[in-house]
Amino acid sequence: MNSHWFARTTLCVLLLTLCLPAIAATEAGAVRPEMIVSAQWLAEHLNDPKVVVLHVAQKRSDYEAGHIPGARLLLFEDFMEGEDAELPSPEKLKDTFEKIGVSNDSHVVAYTTAWYPLAGRAYYTLDYLGHGDHTSLLDGGIIEWKAEKRPLETVEPKITRGSFTPHLHPEVRAMMDEVKKISARDGKSELLVDSRPEKRYTDGHIAGAVHLYWRDTVVDEKEKPVFLPPDKLKELFASHGIQPGQKLITYCEIGWQASHNYFIAKYLGYDAAMFDGSIHQWSHMNSLPLVEGKSLR
């Protein structure tokens, strides 16, 4: 064997070995722009048979009062269960999404006329089912759609049942035992993120959790709820002690506000999970201790 060839080959392999982790880290921390679509993009793709628009609402009347043309109604009760808004069984979720026309090759775009984080909850549910890579949120939701004077309709579209196969990602559900362990650690590699208003955080939060109110990630919740640009979101995360490369576990009261911050974390390229039980399970059901004030512990 030629000694020069062997040396060059060995050097190339060594360099590739050294570079791969850095490349992987860069990709893992990269912004995922496809997770957010503008009203303009959606208007141009409303007639695309692969695009399924979901109108997330608590009541049918909210949908019937006016929705984006072609949007299908996704009621709270169809993808959340109980007073603590837990995920239903995969079988029920499969049936729910198939009924409203979601298939394995669908690009889902979700928005809500309810509380803004509920669009994020729809994303979280689909991500849990393995469809997150094919799901986006409408930037600014229906508020921005209306602000741009785009049309609404009140008739329900004819829906052909979809064919949807869940591929569960249980790792996006942080369970109680995992949260207890993370709470007891130093927070360097894994970090709890409390997504509630500051007053709720200071009244009592899980030890080790940093505070990042979900509302701070949008321009204005009521008037212009478009997401902040990625660079501003990264600055926001850094200002709250969140560093690139950390795994983030979001929580709130019952998993709604936390779903929004879960979406933002995924959008920015973080490894993320959500503690669905949140404060309701931690404190109200299990009487576990909370830390008062602004200190982490």
Report on this model:
The chain is α/β, with parallel strands linked by helices and 297 residues long. It has twelve helices and eleven strands. The strands form three sheets. Strands 1-5-4-2-3 form a five-stranded parallel beta sheet. β6, α9 and β7 form a beta-alpha-beta unit. α6 packs across α11. The N terminus is likely disordered.
Helices and strands, in order, run as: HEHEHEHHEHEHHEHEEEHEHEH
Quickly count the helices: 12
What's the Cα radius of gyration?
21 Å
Report the end-to-end length measured between terminal Cα atoms.
62 Å
Helicity, in percent? 25-40%
Unreliable runs: 1-27
SS class: alpha/beta
Largest sheet: 5 strands, parallel
Assembly state of the chains shown? single chain
E-strand count: 11
Major beta sheet, strand line-up: 1-5-4-2-3
The share of residues in extended strands comes to 15-25%
**What would you call the shape?**
globular
Average pLDDT figure: 90
List the helices and strands and how they pair.
Blueprint: H1 3-28, E1 36-37, H2 39-45, E2 51-57, H3 60-64, E3 72-75, H4 76-79, H5 90-99, E4 107-112, H6 117-128, E5 135-138, H7 141-147, H8 176-184, E6 190-194, H9 198-203, E7 210-211, E8 218-220, E9 224-227, H10 230-239, E10 247-251, H11 257-267, E11 271-274, H12 278-285
Parallel strand pairs: 1-5, 2-3, 2-4, 4-5, 6-7, 6-10, 10-11
Antiparallel strand pairs: 8-9
